[in-house]
Design a protein that fits this description.
Largest sheet: none
Shape: rod-shaped
Oligomer: single chain
Radius of gyration: 29 Å
Structural class: mainly alpha
Distance between the termini: 29 Å
Length: 236
C-alpha cells in the first residue's frame, strides 16, 4: 500500500498548494502556474496509468503474425515431408530455403511489432516529461527575482529594478511554495518511472528529478538567508 506513489494524493496535494498560494498571494501569477501544474498532474496521472497497460491491438497483430508464420511453416514442412522420389531433392532444397526465409521474415515482423509498442510508449512519455520540464523552468522564473538580501537590508533600487513588495516572511513563504511546486513536479514525473521499465524513460525522469533538486537547493539557500528575520506574521 505504501510502496508506490499514489497519483490521486499528488493531485490533491497540488490542489491544496494552489489554494494556499491563492490565499496568501491572490494577485501573484504563481497561483496560476500552480493551477497549470494541477491540470498537468491530473492529465499525467491518466497518461502514466495508460503507459503501464498493454497495447492489445499491437499484441493482436503480433499473435496474427505468429499464427500466419506457423501455418506457412506447417504447409511447407508438409510439402517437404510428402516428397517421396529422389528427383525431388532439388524441390526439397527449395522447400528448406523457403522455411528459412519464412522464419527470418516472421522473426523480423515479431521484433518490429514488439519494439513498436515500446517505442510508441517511449515517445508519449518523453513528450509528457518535456511538458513537465517546461513548467519547471516557468516556476524557476517566478523565484528568480525574489532576492532575500533586499528584504534583509536597505534596498538600493534602480529605475529598472523589479518591484520588491514582499516582507521577509512573505518572501520566505513565496520561495517555499516554489520549492514545493518543484517537488510535486518531480513526483508527477516519477509516476512515469513507476509505470515503465524503459531505461530511456527512467533516465529522463531521473534527469528531471536532478534538475528540480538543484533548483530547490538554490531556493533553500535564499530561504536560509532570511530564516532568522523576525516577523509578526504566522501561518502556512
Amino acid at each position: 500500500m505504501y510502496r508506490k506513489l499514489d497519483s490521486q494524493k499528488i493531485v490533491e496535494t497540488t490542489q491544496a498548494l494552489r489554494e494556499r498560494i491563492q490565499s496568501r498571494f491572490p494577485d501573484a501569477g504563481l497561483s496560476r502556474v500552480c493551477g497549470e501544474l494541477e491540470v498537468i498532474a491530473r492529465a499525467n496521472t491518466e497518461r502514466a496509468r495508460r503507459l503501464a497497460l498493454p497495447n492489445w491491438r499491437l499484441r493482436g497483430a503480433l499473435a496474427a503474425v505468429l499464427a500466419l508464420g506457423a501455418l506457412l511453416l506447417a504447409l511447407v514442412g508438409r510439402a517437404i515431408a510428402t516428397s517421396e522420389t529422389t528427383h525431388d531433392l532439388f524441390g526439397r532444397l527449395q522447400g528448406l530455403e523457403a522455411v528459412v526465409n519464412i522464419t527470418v521474415l516472421i522473426g523480423a515482423a515479431v521484433v518490429f511489432l514488439i519494439t513498436l509498442e515500446s517505442r510508441a510508449k517511449r515517445t508519449r512519455a518523453l513528450a509528457d516529461l518535456h511538458e513537465l520540464r517546461s513548467i519547471v523552468h516557468v516556476i524557476d522564473m517566478h523565484q528568480l527575482t525574489k532576492d532575500p538580501t533586499v528584504s534583509i537590508g536597505e534596498p538600493l533600487a534602480t529605475p529598472v529594478s523589479p518591484a520588491r513588495r514582499f516582507s521577509s516572511f512573505e518572501l520566505s513563504r513565496y520561495l517555499d511554495y516554489c520549492s514545493e511546486m518543484l517537488s510535486l513536479t518531480a513526483k508527477v514525473a516519477a509516476l512515469y518511472a513507476q509505470s515503465s521499465t524503459d531505461p530511456v524513460v527512467i533516465d529522463a525522469v531521473n534527469d528531471l528529478e536532478r534538475l528540480t533538486t538543484n533548483l530547490r537547493q538554490g531556493i533553500w539557500q535564499k530561504i536560509t538567508l532570511i530564516r532568522d528575520v523576525p516577523s509578526p506574521v504566522r501561518g502556512g
